[in-house]
Amino acid sequence: MILKAVHVEEVQYGDGLAEIFSIIGPDVPPWTRLVDFIREVVQAPGTKALCREGGCGVCTVVATVPDRESPGHTKTFSVQAVSGGGGQCITYRFNTNI
Ligand code: FES
């Protein structure tokens, strides 16, 4: 399985822009780290990486997924984008700085 980003929208937050996108196929291998996917495929370099080990929180992005316990609703939570591959995040909807 290969991944691809689908751009959903750009939204204004204060002085900056944020990119909202979902991951589907095909563009890059599923083991590509989420942070690299965001920076290189989505081309949103506002998402940063520092320690690349999950210790500093610099790479945190916001993910939204359907709530299986409450049909018709979503859950929103933070994800450290260096912690996993983009293949674990298919159908997640992300919000990150551009
Ligand atoms: S780069 Fe340090 S936690 Fe993500």
Q: Could you describe the 3D structure shown?
A:
GO terms for molecular function: 2 iron, 2 sulfur cluster binding. This is 2Fe-2S ferredoxin-type domain-containing protein. It comes from Portunus trituberculatus (Swimming crab). Keywords: 2Fe-2S, Iron, Iron-sulfur, Metal-binding. InterPro entries: 2Fe-2S_ferredoxin-like_sf (IPR036010), 2Fe-2S_ferredoxin-type (IPR001041), 2Fe2S_fd_BS (IPR006058), Beta-grasp_dom_sf (IPR012675). By secondary structure, the protein is mainly beta. It has one domain: Ubiquitin-like (UB roll) (Roll), CATH 3.10.20.30. It has one helix at 34-41; strands at residues 3-13, 16-28, 60-66, 74-80, 93-97. The protein has a five-stranded antiparallel sheet with strand order 1-2-5-3-4. Strand 3 (60-66) and strand 4 form a beta hairpin. The longest helix has 8 residues, at 34-41. It is globular and about 35 Å long. Bound molecules: FE2/S2 (inorganic) cluster. FE2/S2 (inorganic) cluster (FES) is lined by residues 49-52, 54-59, 80, 82. Residues 49-52, 54-59, 80, 82 line the site of FE2/S2 (inorganic) cluster (FES).
